[in-house]
Amino acid sequence: MSHTAPQLSARVPFPSTVAVDARRRVAWLLRVNRLLGAHGGHVSLPAFARVFRGGCFGHPVSASALSRWETGQVAVGSAAVSRYEELLGVPRGLLLATAQTTLRYLAPSALSRPPLAGTGHGLDVASDRAQALLDRALSSDLMRGEDWARLTGALCEIDRFVLVPTDTWYRITERLVEEMVIANGTPWMLRFEALNRLLNHPRAAQHAIAVCASMARDGSNYAATEVICALDNTAHADAAARVLAELQRPTGQRALQGAVMACIRKIHYRHFTPSQLRRLGRAAHDIGPEWDLFGQVRALSGALREPPGPVPARRTRIGAPDAGRAPAELAAVVRRVLRQARRSTPSDGTDAVLSALVTEMLCHPLFDVRLYTAVLLAATPHRGGLADAVVTELDRPHVAAAPSCALPLLGALRVLGDAGHRGTVERLALSPGLPRATVSAAVHSLGQIDRDPDDDVFFTRALAQYSREWTRRRDPAAAATLSGLVYVMGRARRTDLIRDVRDRPDHPLTAREAAAWWLGLSERTLASSLV
């Protein structure tokens, strides 16, 4: 799941005064899945407490303890989150990966030991488990997302674990990142959190940063934004230097986009030296308007003008009511989405939280915040209703024609949507009358939305249309659209069509390089990224 997406310059006030901190988000995630999930037999908290002990959770728990977890009064551990998964019948790893992603993004002070990362089995067991998983990661065997979570979790417990030769750190991170950039959903979340653990591991960090920098320099890699942006969560000096270098001498639009996004957080967390901040300010001033995708550079300039704050604690508040103003049409979109979603899913008594999160997902000025909020909502029973509501909005011609509305809706749908929602996005991707930014976002979103494996009509039409557009215009936008289509075809495993792009000399070099990169991926990487 690539981070790549333009940021919005529009800002909007949240209609609710609820500021949902990290712990409360995880609490809400557990509560709504218990009350509204498909199981339906765990509405009573005392009854749920009576069956809670068992499986991966070996201790009795009271209804009052569960209540404190589900209201955010007390932090919940990884074993308890996994037990919710077992009892509620949700996909294994979904709630735990979502909780880890939420806490890591909103609680960056926990860098040395990311929340919910540990195995809890003691150093001897952790060492044995790490060695077995390392052997697998260095072989041609399949590596699941859970395997990467266990491996990096064990390494966090034994941070003095020595690998010989030392380039072993580089090799395992390289495999992890290769799988991550083509994974989606829970497999992506598990790998992304595994990468963040390595980026903050005392021995692995330098090698993990080097892997991200190398992949960003590769012009054929469509995920340059994702791997550079990942460096925002580590205070290692190499990460600050790499992000600043990418800002000063961009290797491409996607890498620059990732650097801008990373800088906004790294400024706040005081990762840059005073000298680096001065250089960063000059670089931001020198970036031309062609790079200013919907206010990214303006957001960076605003961060530079504000004094750095303290590193936020776990109860970081994101989504405060003073987030600014947005166009009236975007505010109307939010109201309609909420109204339709509430009609399709029963209330769990926390409508104010849902309202704040949906508004944040569609209106927050920072793309990362919108993405991670969509990930949180996608792990709840609200997912289907929200996806249907988003599609309803995108089917409105005036909404699709307004990038300030269409872009955040498409960004949300690429996380919330499934094969049943794909038709609307394909239609937008093939609509020549829409703004370029909307068409590009629609193409990129298709890489994350499931598809019918027997439906090849879109690929045939899209390749013909975008190839004609490139032949007529020869402009960077047409080339970027074709490169985005290669990513979509790669996610669909259409190697025949990708090979055709690579072998046609009349296609743009960037698209042919992207096609060659996909075709060069090993079967091991492709198979592992799916699980």
Task: Summarize it.
This protein is mainly alpha-helical. It contains 28 helices and two strands.
What is the straight-line distance between the termini? 14 Å
The quaternary state of the protein chains shown equals single chain
Helix content: 55-70%
Largest beta-sheet characterization: 2 strands, antiparallel
Descriptive report:
- The protein has about 525 residues and is an all-alpha fold.
- It has helices at about 20-35, 45-50, 65-70, 80-90, 95-105, 125-135, 145-155, 170-180, 185-200, 205-215, 225-230, 235-250, 255-270, 275-285, 295-305, 330-345, 350-365, 365-380, 385-395, 395-400, 405-415, 420-430, 435-445, 455-475, 475-490, 495-505, 510-520, 525-530; strands spanning about 20, 315-320.
- The chain contains 28 helices and two strands.
Defining key terms:
globular, 62% helix, mainly alpha, single chain, 28 helices, two-stranded antiparallel ribbon, 531 residues
Task: List the topology elements.
Blueprint (H helix, E strand, L loop, with lengths): L19 E2 H15 L8 H8 L10 H8 L7 H11 L5 H13 L16 H15 L7 H13 L10 H13 L4 H15 L5 H13 L6 H6 L7 H12 L4 H16 L5 H13 L9 H10 L11 E2 L9 H17 L6 H13 L3 H12 L4 H12 L2 H4 L2 H14 L5 H8 L6 H10 L11 H17 L2 H16 L3 H9 L5 H11 L3 H6 L3
Antiparallel strand pairs: 1-2
Helix pairs in contact: 1-5, 2-3, 4-5, 5-9, 5-18, 6-7, 7-9, 8-9, 8-10, 12-13, 12-14, 13-15, 14-15, 16-17, 16-19, 17-18, 18-21, 19-21, 21-23, 22-23, 23-25, 24-25, 25-27, 26-27
